[in-house]
Amino acid sequence: MRLYAAVAVSGFRRYATYRAATAAGVFTNTVFGFIIAATFIALWDERPHLGGYDQSQALTFVWISQALLAVAALMGGGFEEELQERIRTGDIAVDLYRPADLQLWWLAGELGRAAFQLLGRGAVPLAAGALVFDLSLPADPLRWLVFLLSVVLGVTVGFALRFLVALSSFWLLDGAGINVISGVSSVFFSGMLLPLTVFPGACGEVVRTLPWAAMLQVPVDVLIGRQDVPGLAAALAFQAGWAALLLGAGRALQSLATRKVVIQGG
Question: CA-CA to 183 of 20 to 30 Å: which in 70, 89, 160, 175?
Fold first, then answer.
C-alpha cells in the first residue's frame, strides 16, 4: 500500500506544478459560477421549489458543482487520454512489467490528482460563492467529513468509468469518439447542467440510478443535507456499490485486454 500512497502523492505534486493552469481554472470556475447562479436565481424565482430545492440550496448546488468540476474530471483533464496514448504507442507494455497492479496504479494517481484539484481549484470558487450568496452550507463538521467520503467515492466511480473507456483503446484505433461520448454522458447525467431531481417522471428516476449520479449529484445532496442518517447510508452505499461493480468490470476487461496485447505503435 505504501507504493500506491507514493503514487497518489506523486499525482498531487504533479498537478501542483501547473500553477498558471490552476489559477486559470479557478478564475473560469468562479466566473461560470456567477453566470450559472444568475440563471438559477431567475429559474427559482419562477419555480421556488423546483426539484425539491429552495433557492439557497439551488445556489449551493451551483457552487459545489463548480468546486467539484475538476475534482471529478467531468469535462476531461483526468488520466484516460494519457493511458490511451500509452496503449496506442505500446508504452503500456512497460506499465504491465511494473511490480504493481495497473488499475490500482492509475487509481492512486487519480486520487492524488483529485485531492489537489479539490484544494487548488475547489476551495476558492466555493468561498467566492459563499461570500456573495446565502448558501446552505452545514455547520456540523461531521457532515463535511461525510461529504469528503462521498467525494472520494464519487471520484472512484468516475475513475472506474473512465478506466473502462481508456481500456477500449486495446481494440479501437482511435479513442476520440468514445471519449466524446463519455464526456457528454458525464456532463449530462451527473447533474452538472441541472440537478437530476429536476428531470421529470421516469427519465428522472432512471438518471438518478446511473453511475454518473454518484459523481456529483450524490455528494452535493450529502453536503446540503437532503438525507437523514438512513438516507446518508443509502447514498454512500449507492456510490460504493457502483464503485465496486465498475472496478470489477475494469479488472475483468483489463485481464481480457492483457492476455493478447496488440501493440499498434511499435
Answer: 89
Contacts of 128 (CB under 8 A, 6+ apart): 30, 33, 63
DSSP 149-176: HHHHHHHHHHHHHHHHHHHGGGT-S--H
For residue 8, give the nearest of 103, 91, 132, 115 by alpha carbon: 115
Distance of CA 217 to the CA centre of its chain: 10
Instruction: Pick the most confident of 170-174, 197-201, 235-239.
Output: 235-239
Q: How far is CA 256 from the centre of its chain?
A: 26
What are 118-153's pLDDT values in tens digits? Answer: 999 999 999 999 999 999 999 889 999 999 999 999
CA distance 262 to 122: 40
Which residues touch 194 (CB under 8 Å, ≥6 apart)?
Answer: 51
Residue 89: predicted pLDDT? 83
In contact, 28 and 69? CB cutoff 8 Å: no
**Which residue type sits at 200?**
P
DSSP state of 185: H
Which of 74, 89, 77, 107 lies closest to 250, judged by CA?
Answer: 107
Cβ atoms of residues 239 and 160 within 8 Å:
no
Site of grid cell 471520484: 155
**C-alpha cell at position 111:** 486520487
Phi, psi angle pair for 71, to nearest 5°: -60, -50
Cβ proximity of 158 and 191 under 8 Å: no
Spatial separation of the C-alpha atoms in residues 114 and 79, rounded to whole Å: 11
pTM beyond cutoff 0.85:
yes
Residue type, 144: W
Of 103, 114, 143, the closest CA to residue 243 belongs to 103
